[in-house]
Design a protein that fits this description.
The strands form eight sheets. A seven-stranded parallel sheet has the order 11-12-10-13-14-9-15, with helices on both faces. Helix 9 packs across helix 10 and helix 20 packs antiparallel against helix 21. It is α/β, with parallel strands linked by helices and 738 residues long. The structure holds adenosine-5'-diphosphate and zinc ion (ZN) (2 copies).
Length: 738
């Protein structure tokens, strides 16, 4: 190989499922590209955009056989070295092809080199700002825009579409001189004009615990802080004041939240507090806007970046602080393709950047708690609620031999009644939407099963249907049994719709509000319901997980959990941890202001030691107990695991593919205490959408051991002819092992 060829040969990572980069030659007349630039290359007869990840030949391929790539893509950016390194780490850690990792790190608009559509902003002119809400009566459409702007300040081209403001109405307002159009974001203009005024709103005076937490964090160094504070203890205020420090030093702050729809308050509180450009990165932002936002994070003009999992890969020009709110949340782990954990990635990233990272939660994951107990993370604890109100009281309600009414015991109904009589609000938590889990024939035992999945079809009443929540299959509701034609059908497993109806019958005078994915398809109806609850009027809320997180309802005093036993039935060793987290999250909605809240857990095993521990001593004691069990059983976080999954329309193919891994493992590794293999075996949902699913887990006492075994097995898989016909995936540090 001749040395002078090197600068003309570049290594390109292409979005293909192969775990390597490819050598191409710089086309004649083009300048050699830079690291991180996008180029267009032909691969297997397709043109695709790839990222330059190195120079010089990476393989022994004869230099003359190396093809030219087409061209360097004209784009406004190149991937910064830091992101390139981050993607390389992801590719290495999760054993995922680098090209695909890079692909998912760049917003679609930018990686295809598309030009961004122009964005416009509209705000009221000086004259417009002088009008009040009731002006422009004669044109309701104009008045609607006026009112929106008086409240929100401005809207842009995309919001305009969403809000359905017509071009002609806007034009009319422009002609009247009431509306102005610009091409830069108005708030940003303001912020640039007044950089000296960082705060829009005064910071709260911290209590002692909060102050200690803020003071503990050292900037310009890597350290991981676990901010462990009960719901309502003021973690968000700590995030805000830490962010203020970073912003004052001219640095950017990256804030991750699990799901944007469930934490709009967090975004709002950052917006209300700071006078600096803030951008959002999540799936609710349109692709064009995501690309714009991403570029602002890259050039440093955006100073606060808030987003979901995908924002963990946002570029940062002057990174100063990373915050991961609700760090225990499952949503941080991607469940397909590149199965990365945004939390774990962020910790690695903070380390590379030499900046602090704060993981916040009322119910930390056992992984993070262990690190804190081992003194690898700083454990910052907030014990008191910031509002001064006491933590809610948790009690079990014994369900054994009780008369039940739509899943509620008499004691639970009685508690709701007295709560309403005091003019307070109650929440009934039921983590199953629909009317009932299944339709059932009491005569012959027929059940409404999904024809495509090993799961039952949920019965819904409005609109009436049977619906598979795993594959979306729908069918009509049966009036009589399709098997024996004899009898009327019954239902089992109460869902939120049934609860709503039953509660409305029991309390005909009181509003009963149901919040779940079915009732909240429209953002507006969700917002309307939340507003109604916030107003404080006595009511009963019925809902799923959607209600468990984040919300602050001042007059909510009672929480009923209809079924606290789910963790006991879980086949996953993380079942109990999840149950504890969920119960504490839901419980955290009760009594956030004023008098103490009450949380009633309906259970058939009210004396279970773990449930008792949770009720009496709280999450920390509960979690430490679970950790000691994990240690005893050598389960994560005291061991490391990976899971191979295979699925196919033919069950024997899926299991055969994993069987080849088992034999490779036995061939390559003599039996040892250090590692083990479990499977292949059917997944807990054996069939989804007519595909059979199998799994195989690898466990090791050291991460390095796990990695070398998994690598060897992946090589084996790629050699196997079956792997072309069977869909397989690899999950490192899986969250669900059942
Ligand atoms: P968390 O994020 O831990 O759930 P929040 O930050 O939302 O808690 O705080 C709960 C409530 O307490 C909020 O209404 C917040 O404004 C208020 N709060 C937080 N810190 C203080 C403080 N130092 N003084 C007064 N009120 C506070
Ligand atoms: Zn029947
Ligand atoms: Zn199905």
């Amino acid at each position: 190989m001749q040395a002078n060829h090197d600068t003309h040969i570049v290594q390109i990572a292409l979005p293909v499922p192969l775990r390597r980069a490819f050598d191409y030659r710089v086309p004649a007349g083009e300048k050699p590209p830079q690291l991180g630039q996008l180029v267009l290359a032909n691969f297997a007869n397709r043109d695709m955009a790839g990222v330059v990840v190195g120079f010089g030949p990476s393989s022994e391929l004869e230099a003359t056989k190396i093809k030219n790539y087409q061209q360097t893509l004209p784009s406004k950016f190149k991937l910064p070295a830091e992101l390139l390194t981050l993607c390389q780490w992801l590719s290495d850690y999760y054993l995922h092809p680098l090209g695909e990792v890079l692909q998912s790190s760049i917003p679609p608009y930018l990686r295809q080199g598309k030009a961004l559509p122009e964005n416009n902003y509209w705000q009221l002119s000086r004259e417009g700002k002088g009008l009040n809400h009731d002006a422009l009566k004669r044109s309701p459409k104009q008045q609607q825009i006026l009112r929106y702007l008086l409240e929100h300040g401005y809207f842009d081209s995309e919001q305009r579409k969403q809000l359905d403001f017509s071009a002609s109405t806007i034009k009319a307002l422009e002609q009247k001189g009431l509306l102005e159009r610009t091409d830069t974001e108005p708030e940003q203009k303001q912020a640039q004009a007044r950089v000296s005024e960082l705060l829009k709103q005064k910071a709260l005076e911290l209590n002692g615990e909060q102050q200690a937490a803020v003071d503990a964090v050292r900037f310009h160094h890597f350290a991981c802080y676990l901010l462990h504070g009960a719901t309502g203890s003021g973690k968000t205020e700590v995030y805000l004041q830490l962010s203020e420090r970073a912003l004052r030093a001219g640095q950017q702050v990256l804030v991750l939240v699990p799901e944007i729809g469930l934490s709009p308050q967090t975004v709002q509180r950052f917006r209300q507090r700071f006078n600096v450009p803030l951008i959002e990165l999540h799936s609710g932002v349109s692709e064009a806007q995501r690309a714009r936002n991403w570029l602002q994070a890259l050039d440093g003009s955006a100073q606060i970046i808030i987003g979901t999992r995908l924002a963990a890969l946002s570029p940062l020009k002057h990174a100063g602080l990373i915050i991961v709110d609700e760090e225990h949340d499952l949503a941080y782990k991607q469940q397909d393709g590149l199965r990365y954990s945004a939390r774990d990635l962020s910790i690695y990233r903070a380390n590379q950047l030499k900046i602090p990272i704060v993981l916040g939660s009322a119910t930390p994951s056992l992984e993070s708690l262990k690190q804190a107990l081992d003194k690898k993370y700083h454990h910052l604890v907030l014990k008191q609620r910031a509002s001064g109100s006491a933590a809610p009281l948790l009690q079990c309600l014994d369900l054994r031999d009780q008369n039940m009414h739509a899943g509620l015991s008499q004691a639970a109904l009685g508690a709701i009644r007295s709560c309403l009589e005091r003019g307070e609000q109650a929440l009934v938590f039921q983590n199953r939407r629909g009317y009932a889990a299944v339709q059932l024939c009491h005569h012959c035992g027929w059940m409404s099963e999904c024809p495509r999945c090993s799961a039952s079809m949920t019965l819904h009443s409005r609109p009436a249907r049977l619906h598979c929540h795993h594959c979306d299959w729908r069918s009509r509701v049966y009036q009589s049994c399709p098997n024996c034609q004899q009898s009327q059908l019954e239902s089992r497993g109460v869902g939120t719709e049934q609860l709503e109806q039953a509660l409305q019958q029991s309390f005909p005078e009181t509003p009963v509000l149901r919040v779940d994915r079915d009732s909240s398809r429209s953002k507006k109806s969700f917002a309307d319901k939340l507003a109604q609850v916030q107003s404080g009027q006595a009511c009963v809320l019925v809902g799923t997980q959607m209600l468990a997180k984040g919300h602050h309802f001042p007059n909510l005093k009672l929480v009923i959990v209809t079924d606290a036993d789910q963790g006991f039935f879980s086949s996953d060793f993380r079942g109990m941890e999840r149950m504890g987290q969920l119960l504490m999250q839901v419980a955290g909605r009760a009594g956030r202001e004023g008098s103490r809240g009450l949380v009633l857990l309906q259970s058939h095993r009210p004396d279970h030691p773990l449930l008792q521990l949770l009720c009496q001593r709280g999450y920390y004691s509960f979690a430490r107990h679970l950790l000691s069990e994990r240690l005893h059983n050598e389960l994560p976080p005291y061991s490391f695991s990976a899971q191979f999954r295979a699925e196919s329309k033919r069950a024997e193919n899926a299991s055969a593919l994993l069987e080849t891994l088992r034999s490779a493992y036995s061939r390559l590794y003599p039996p040892s205490q250090e590692h083990s293999l479990l499977g292949p075996m059917p997944s807990s949902m054996e069939k989804i959408q007519d595909r059979y699913r199998f799994q195989l887990s690898v466990k090791a006492n050291k991460r390095s051991t796990l990695k070398s075994i998994v690598k060897a097995l992946v090589d084996e898989l790629e050699q196997s002819a079956l792997s072309k016909r069977v869909r397989w995936s690899l999950d490192i540090d899986p969250l669900e092992t059942a």
